[in-house]
Amino acid sequence: xxxxxxxxxxxxxxPNDPATTAAFHAFLQGPARTAxxxxxxxxxxxxxxxxxxxxxxxxxxxxxxIAQLAGQGVNIFFLAGNRDFLPGAxxxxxxxxxxxxxxxxxLCNGQTLLIAHGDALCTDDIAYQRFxxxxxxxxxxxxxxxxxxxxxxxxxxxxxxxxKATNQMKRSDIMDVNPQATAQLMARSxxxxxxxxxxxxxAMHILPQGQRWVLPDWYQxxxxxxxxxxxxxxxxxxxxxxx
Length: 243
Known about the structure:
Layout: E1 5-8, H1 18-29, E2 37-40, H2 57-71, E3 75-79, H3 89-95, E4 98-100, E5 104-108, E6 111-116, H4 126-135, H5 138-145, H6 149-169, H7 179-189, E7 193-196, E8 203-207, E9 210-214, E10 224-229, E11 232-237
Parallel strand pairs: 1-2, 2-3, 3-4, 6-7, 7-9
Antiparallel strand pairs: 1-10, 5-6, 8-9, 10-11
GO molecular function, one term: hydrolase activity
Cofactor: Mn(2+)
Enzyme class: hydrolase
């Protein structure tokens, strides 16, 4: 029987949530070791301000743990999220993983799957999409990465606080994916299965176009993952029980 393929996202790992860090290490040493591939669909870290973040002990610890899993023969892929969209070649080499574009079409166990972080599909949040276009511009990123790490970290902290305050005032529906944008993306990709994270609203949605799986977020040691085994997709809690 082929080994399963696993999907995770929205762990938001940071030294401030040691329970989730411990849960991630347990996941890498448990379910992930039985997989043939692991796809990380963004927001692995609370933030990633550039590959010089590897010089920080916490980040180096996480990346080393991922590399150990890769060294055991698990193929690992990373797709950037809205919190960690600045990974580069140094990060990829250190973690022994491959960075994929968002979105990506992948072929798994004979199925064509569309994977994404999910934030680009939240098109009703016009202010966020405007911000996303700016910070994803290659010139803006190059200028940002050229600045001192301490300054970058300070700016990211300010943005996080501002985003938290702004999101509290937004309607819940505009922070979810837009059905039309989702349908258009699936139609362009010629696939009937979409897997994404970002919204922190884990579920499986039946659509006219097929299925939309939303990955669970992780917090204080709780979380989950998606498993593709043969042709069956299922969502699980970290202890392996159904989500």
